[in-house]
Structures are given as structure tokens and as C-alpha cells.
Amino acid sequence: ERNRAEGAGFHEIIQLSARLQSQCMMLQERATALEREKIILEHSMSEARAESDRSAPSSVAKLERRIHELQEQLTAKYRSDAQSAQAQLELNARLQQVERQLSEAIARAEAAEAERDRVKSEKASVQEALRAKEAEFALLQQEHAASQAVLSSTEKRLMETEAEHRDLLRRFVEEKHDMMERVNKMNEEIESLKRQLVSVRRGGGEEAEEEAKEGHGKKDGLFFGLFRGRSASASSVGGGGGGAAVRMRAFSVASVPPGVARHTIRAHSSEINAVAFNEQGSLVATGSSDSTVIVWEVATGRQVARLKAGDAAVMCVDLHGSDAALGGCTDASCRIWSIQTERTRRTLKGHAGKLYSARFFRQGRCAITGATDRSIKLWDLGSGSCLRTINCHSMCNAIALGPNDSVIVSGHQDQSVRLWDPSNGASILSSKEAHSGPVTSVEFARDAPSLLTASKDNSLCLLDPRSLTVISRMNDPGLRIGCNWSKTAISGDGQFAAAGSTTGSVFVWAAPDGKRMVELKEHSACVTSVAWGMGSQVASVDKDGMLVLWE
């Protein structure tokens, strides 16, 4: 069938060749007959010549005319044979060309048929694989549907559990507040009886002195009452001995707003992200994107130590005493250094995101870190192991430790401020009422029941740490908080707050009423972090690598 289909185009040429071959054969037969006739005529002519003498001249003339006619016919026959042979040769050449083309066409057809068979085979394989994939996809769809059902059920149970948890937390807080009120009333009654007893024993002058002491103790009593029930366990996490609560150190230097720049230092070659004092106010540390932490002597502005963090930018710093420093880095690690030797003691690894905040516990045996991976981790600095991980559901921009390390406060990208129990990682309280933007900084006053927060909404808030309600709000038209890791500061007695702006200014407010006190101008670049030391000690750093120590 294929030969018939492919040879149809050459059918006319083949028929013409057959006709020419037939004509050639007829001409050859005629030439043969004429040749025989010629021979006969020549024989007759030879006989006639022999008898020519006897024959009449007319007969010879006839025979000669006949011979001439036969010769012309023979010549015409040769000419026709030559033309037929030429046509035959041309037809043969054309036929050979057609046969070659036919052979090539047949070869191409065979190759095309082989390619078609191969494509059919591949198509069958692809179809088989497609059917397998479709079956696998159907199975995955079934598994997905089952997973969705399980997820929906789990989410429903989670919502019910969260609702129950919120209800329990609300009841717990209410009962706790009621208990605190009762305890405070009992304390007031006891102190009243003590004052009466002192009045009877010592007289009016000594009674007035006792009243003053009682007033100061009462101010702190409200704050300690919030965490008194868990201070022992929290101290054990921080490395306290015997489980006894460590009392908050009373401040000895009254805070006043700073007024002048005591030292202006080109501290780093790149932007500075963090600054922190030690507890004594004798040292200040700066952490920079140039992968270093530098410790400075506050009194002289002299460099004490240069600590290297590999290739990672340092986003937060803290000091413990005069010999330990830590830095949280963009490589998801927290490094602990010895200031004396400038060597790395520990590298704490476990986070999956940048560290924006890290702090020592009061006794220096543990540390806490907060990262962009939405987790807070507590670390044992002796072994370098992670003691506890708290999942906080939002990027953690800032953390701080409360009095006696009894509570953790964290600030988050979702505008929330959260309180955590360090002994078990449980959530105590959460609030989004203070700010309308990401919270960048949280800081407890060292010697007073005050909690300061700051946000990208360009405001600072003084919060009641017991309920996270707003006591006062601080802002200014020139205040622009530039980074998610920008840190603000509160004085040790909780009377003043300071924050840096993208304009280069440092603003100071009276924290209890939110009144702006002073605007300090020394920086020419965005101020990224501010820290408050003892009394009027304030340090500020900027994106140009400058450190300013104020007094």
C-alpha cells in the first residue's frame, strides 16, 4: 500500500517508458524485415546484373529505383531508430533519477515510520507516567483533605483551649489583684501598728523619720508584691543560691536630666546598633555592624577592650560587672566575652534568626536572648546549653528582666508587650494597648516599679508592670524612631526617659507625667540606641559610628 501511494506520482512516466520500449521493439522488427528485404533485393540485383546483358534497360532502371527507395527507407528507419534510442536513453536517465528520488522518499518514509514508532513508544511511556502521577496526586489530595480535616479539628481545639486559657488567666489576674489588695491592706495595718508603737516609744521626731522610711518601702512594696510568689524560682533560673529571692539593689544616686556632652567618640567604622552600661556605671559597651563590641571607660572615654564577633554584625550588647560582655549577632548567635582577655568564652547557638536583644541575668550565670525567629531562649552560661525556649508568636525586638530576674518582659513586631515567667516559660500577661506600631524597646527601671516601652509609632510609654496599663505617654514632633532594634532608656529611679531620633536629637522626658525636659543635639546621623547609667549618665550612638557620653 505504501509503494502504491508513493509510486502514484511516477505512474505516467512509467507508462510513457513502456510505450517507447514497445515502439522500439516494433521499429527493430521492421528494421530486421527491411534488412532481409535488402538482402533479397541485393541478391536479386546481383542476379539481375548477371542477366543485365540480357535484360532490358528499363528493368535495370526499375530495380535501381527500387533499391534507391529501399535505401531511403532504411536511412529513415536508422534515423528513427537513432531518435528512439536517444529518447530511450533520456527516459532511462529520467527513470533512474525518479528511482533514486523514490528510494530516497522510501528511506525518508521508513525513517519517519521509525520515528513515529519511537514517538508512539515515548507517548505510551509518558501516558503511563502521567497516570502514575495522577494516581499519586489523587492520593496526595486525599491526604491533604485528611490533613485539612485534622488541622481544622486541631484549630478548633486550640481556639477552645486558648479561650479557656484566657478565661483562666483573667480569673488568675483578678484573684491575684484581690490577693494583692488584701496583702497591701494587711501591710498597711501592720505598718500603722508599727508607727503607733514607734510613736509611743520614741516620740514625735523619731515617728516622722519612721514615716519617711515607711513611705519609701511602701512604694517598692507594691511592685515586689506582683512577683513575690515566683521570685524564688526565677532566682534559681538566674543562678541564685538556696532559692532565696535576691532583693533589688536600692539606688544611691539620684537621677537628673543630662545637659552636656562629656565625651564624643568616633567609636566604630560602621553604624552602631547598640549601647549598654554595666550596673556600676563605670563601663559602657557599643556593638556595631563592623562585627565588633568595644568597651569604654565612662570617666575618661578610654577604650578598654575590643571584642570580635567574626563576620556578623552586632545588634545588641550587655555588660555584667567589669569582666563579662555579650553581643547578639545577625548570624543567629550570642557571644560571651571576657573583657580582661578579649577572648570568647561561649558562643550560644540555637536561634534561626537575627538576635535583636540579649541580657545577662543579675548574677551572671544565665543569659536570655530574643530573636526574629519568634522565640526567646534562656541559656546556662556555664555549659552553653539552652535551658528553655519560649515561643512568642511574633518577632521579638526587645527583652528585659524585672526585679530579681523574677519576670521577663518582651516587645514584639505585632505591637504587643508580653510578660513571661522565667522559671517555666509560661505567659503571664500580654497587651497591645500601649502602641500602634512594632515595639522596639522594653526597659525596667533599676530601682523603681516602672516599665518603659518604645515603638515605631514614635512614642514612649510608662507602663504599670502589674497590668501593663499606660501611666504616661511621651512623644515629640521631632521624634522619629528609626529601627526595629532602636533602644530607649529609663533612669534608675524611673523619673526620666530618653530616646534617640532619626534627626540626630536625643530627647529626655519626665517619665511620670510625660513632659519633655530637654532636647540634646550632638549627633549628625540617626540615633539608634540610648542607655542610662547612674545619676545623669546617658550614652547615645548613631549610624555614623559615633558614641556620645552625656552628663
Explain this structure to me?
- The two termini are 107 Å apart.
- Residues 204-236 and 238-252 have low confidence and may be disordered.
- This protein is an alpha+beta fold and 551 residues long.
- The chain has helices spanning 2-7, 11-50, 57-202, 204-227, 231-238, and strands at residues 261-266, 272-277, 283-288, 292-297, 303-308, 314-320, 324-329, 333-338, 344-349, 355-360, 366-371, 375-380, 385-391, 396-401, 408-412, 417-420, 427-431, 439-444, 451-455, 459-464, 469-474, 489-490, 496-500, 505-510, 515-521, 527-532, 538-542, 546-550.
- The strands form seven sheets. A four-stranded antiparallel sheet has the order 1-28-27-26, with no helix packed on it.
| Bulk shape | rod-shaped
Low-pLDDT sequence parts: 204-236, 238-252
Strand percentage: 25-35%
Record field, number of beta strands: 28
Taking the alpha carbons of the first and last residues, their distance comes to 107 Å
- Taking all Cα atoms into account, the compactness measure Rg is 54 Å
Q: Describe the largest sheet.
A: 4 strands, antiparallel
What number is the mean pLDDT? 84
| Approximate helicity band | 40-55%
- What's the assembly state of these chains? single chain
* Annotation field: number of helices: 5
